[in-house]
Amino acid sequence: MSEKFSRRSLFRTASYFFGAVPIFGAILSDRALAQNKVAQAAVSYQDSPKGSQQCSNCAAFEPPHACKTVAGDIHPTGWCSIWTAK
């Protein structure tokens, strides 16, 4: 067996590959999660509350200005049609 195709070089290459797979998986997973958020217009987002319903008391709100399901800058006093109580 030549040095170019030795078992040692095969295992070294395989370890590099399998070591990189979780890193690339995490990067792709984060991008996929970010792309799964809906647009503000699709859920009738507004910067003002609807009665007692507002983003700051919604289960999906992520302080200070984010949402688990709606993309973009979210105001704590905002509201959208998928509001869910905490």
Concise synopsis of the structure shown:
With 86 residues, this protein is mostly helical.
Word description of this protein:
The protein has 86 residues and is mostly helical. The protein folds into two domains: 36 residues; 49 residues, High potential iron-sulphur protein (High-Potential Iron-Sulfur Protein, Chain A, Irregular). It has one helix and two strands, in the order H-E-E. A two-stranded antiparallel sheet has the order 1-2. A hairpin with a 3-residue loop joins strand 1 and strand 2. The N and C termini lie far apart (65 Å). The model has no long low-confidence stretch (mean pLDDT 82).
* CATH fold-type name of the largest domain: High-Potential Iron-Sulfur Protein, Chain A
Query: What structural class do the secondary elements suggest?
Result: mainly alpha
The CATH superfamily label of the largest domain reads High potential iron-sulphur protein
The top-level CATH class of the largest domain is: Few Secondary Structures
Number of domains: 2
The biggest beta sheet is recorded as: 2 strands, antiparallel
Radius of gyration: 23 Å
- Second-tier CATH architecture of the largest domain: Irregular
Number of helices: 1
What is the element string, with H for helices and E for strands?
A: HEE
> Could you tell me the mean pLDDT?
82
Helix content: 25-40%
Q: Roughly what fraction of the amino acids lie in strands?
A: under 5%
Give the termini separation: 65 Å
